[in-house]
Write a structure and sequence with these properties.
Blueprint (H helix, E strand, L loop, with lengths): L5 E2 L3 E11 L3 E20 L2 E8 L12 H13 L5 E8 L9 H16 L3 H4 L2 H12 L3 H8 L2 E6 L7 E6 L5 E8 L5 H5 L8 H19 L5 H4 L14 H12 L4 E3 L6 E6 L3 H5 L6 E5 L8 E4 L6 E2 L1
Parallel strand pairs: 4-5
Antiparallel strand pairs: 1-13, 2-3, 2-12, 3-5, 3-6, 6-7, 8-10, 8-11, 9-10
């Protein structure tokens, strides 16, 4: 493959927050939310400059260790070569370490930005390859699929060693209103995942299989079924020692007939409210939580070109 040419103009990429698992859909189901990170990337003559505002401004690295830059480097390798330099400006709004897909947003932003600044990038790097690269970097496909595609997604890996990752997008019911309850303290995904057992009872696996199937119907066409459809026996209870207050809130909300789950690996709690109930539900958590009523993101990760595109740099 010939070394690629790069566009001189900057590009802007917007990536949504995501919530995965959604109760019974462990490592498979995801939902894109109307809370966004924005990134502006420009190919430079030399070096790497990173500016960060918002979430992670004081803690994220400003060098090659930055997750978005690592994703860009992976994409450029597939595209045929690295640019001489990069300028990156990040406006981060998705909370970090809260189970809202901040790492997936960074990965998808980096992959899309690399493709967008490369001449002919869409022909060299297909949407399917984007999904596979994002899954490889993230470790599992549920969040990255929702981030890339928007809406309500189901992701899986084909059988066999080295099987490709696949995902389908479904249209969530317009009546569903996500409300997220974000705690002050973060939780590492590795910590939450480390609490999961290697095996689970067959009856629990069967229960979750039925509820995950019901959740597809509930979230796309029959929101009145969301409370039973979001029941889980595979992961939330096992993770409770790492997020006691989150599980207490989930149980309290569900006792009030609110379909509530742990968002991703936690500790954020996601309530799938219906229009008319969202404002009331957002006031139920009490102190120690930041409640946000969000929209559903139906677009997924988007490239938004800036003025002045068209000139090519090498």
């Amino acid at each position: 493959m010939a070394h690629p040419a790069f566009r001189a103009a900057a590009v802007r990429v917007r990536t949504p927050a995501t919530s995965a698992n959604l109760g019974p859909g462990f490592d498979a189901l995801g939902l894109a939310l109307g809370l966004y990170d924005d990134v502006v990337v420009r190919v430079a003559d030399a070096g790497l400059e990173i500016d960060i505002a918002g979430e992670g401004a004081r803690t994220l690295p400003r060098d090659e260790r930055h997750l978005m830059v690592r994703a860009m480097r992976n994409a450029f390798d597939v595209l045929g070569g690295q640019p001489r330099g990069l300028e990156v400006v990040c406006a981060n709004r998705i909370p970090h370490g809260r189970g809202l897909g901040s790492s997936s947003a960074a990965i998808c932003a980096g992959l899309l930005a690399a493709r967008a600044v490369t001449t002919g990038g869409e022909n060299r790097l297909t949407d399917q390859t984007l999904l596979e690269l994002a899954t490889e970097l993230e470790g599992h496909p549920d969040n990255v699929a929702a981030c890339l595609l928007g809406g309500f997604t189901l992701a899986w890996s084909e059988a066999g060693a080295g099987g490709s990752v696949r995902a389908i997008r479904m249209e969530p019911a317009a009546a569903v209103v996500p409300v997220v309850f974000v705690p002050a303290r973060p939780l590492l995904t590795e910590t939450a995942r480390g609490l999961l057992p290697r095996t689970v009872p067959h009856v629990d696996a069967a229960h979750n299989a039925g509820r995950a199937a019901l959740l597809v119907e509930a979230l796309t066409r029959r929101p009145e079924l969301l409370l039973p459809a979001t029941e889980d026996r595979l992961h939330q209870d096992y993770r409770e020692p790492a997020m006691t207050e989150s599980m207490e809130l989930v149980r309290r909300l569900r006792a009030d007939a609110v379909p509530a789950v742990i968002s991703g690996a936690g500790p954020t709690v996601l309530a799938l409210a219906q229009e008319g109930d969202a404002e009331k539900i957002s006031r139920l958590a009490g102190e120690g939580w930041t409640a946000n009523r969000l929209s559903l993101d139906l677009t997924g990760a988007s490239v938004l070109p800036l003025a002045g595109a068209g000139e090519t740099a090498r």
